[in-house]
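Running this now, will post back.
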Amino acid sequence: MKKEYLYNKKNRAELKKELLSEPFNRITSSFYRYIAIDDPSSLRDQLYKAWSALKVLGRIYISKEGINAQFSIPEHNWDIFIDSIESFNELKQIPMKIAIEDGNSFYKLTIKEKDEIVAYNVSADEYDMNIVGRHLDSKAFNRKIDQKGSIVVDMRNYYESEVGKFTGAITPNVSKSNELLPEVKNLLKGHEEDPVLLYCTGGIRCEKASSYLLHSGFKDVYQLSGGIIKYAHEVKKKNLSSKFKGKNFVFDARMGERVTEDIIGKCYQCGAQSDTHLDCNNDACHVLFIQCIACKEEYSGCCSIECKNFSELSLDQQRDFRKDPNKIVSKARYSFRAESINKG
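Update: finished.
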């Protein structure tokens, strides 16, 4: 198969129609592994060929430092998919995490070669992936949270923690991964001797973060094994008290998985309790924000009245509007606006 065929060429509307017409159920899952990969490009093409044949949909990043994958697969192809995983030396016996809640998570298969599988953008001399924080299961993590002096740190972006987090956790006010590690180190200044407990969605962000903190002089660093996803499953299976409250934000079409019935988020527009993230319905904006049902109706799923008005213009009017740099409704402008409202 020629390489030019190893990419999706259908538009979103076609893909969504195909997904909704499928007569079978899908399993949403994820995995990651930090491991040396000599030829990421070759592995990328092999995986695309093997997994597209199994109707895998999702987003997979491969680099020389490892692999990070979130995907969905037809339920009836699960065992074949596992056999496929085991056929690649880099992926043998890789731990899988099954989604807390299922649904239409992905519309296409995307496999990309990256410089890093998590875009922290820190230099190689600031961490050593052979030295990482101790992994704790859900029960041990709960006990450690209750230990005097322990500090719990959310290793995710602010918009993830605004709908769900561990009680008492430090939630860094950052919106990009490359801002996270320096900010966390700064927030923890003076606590180099205290137990530091890290958590994230599925565990991958904590791996390099824990190594970075240990390399930066922190002595007692732990990480939640398997992240919030595995924690939610273990809490239910072992009948434990969940110290995580609310929703687990996910980077797919579902936007979130409910862990507990607690609603800790607030509508950006009216301040009412809500934990439903939306992309602004204005195609010139698409900022991510929280909106309650009442405001969704009032603003037509947009983040502001300006975006609502713009989205209601004809396509010709929108094109004319965009030609005037003094009038254009820009994504950056409303991203800043929404973030300011959230922080205020």
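The longest helix spans residues 40-52. More later if anyone needs it.
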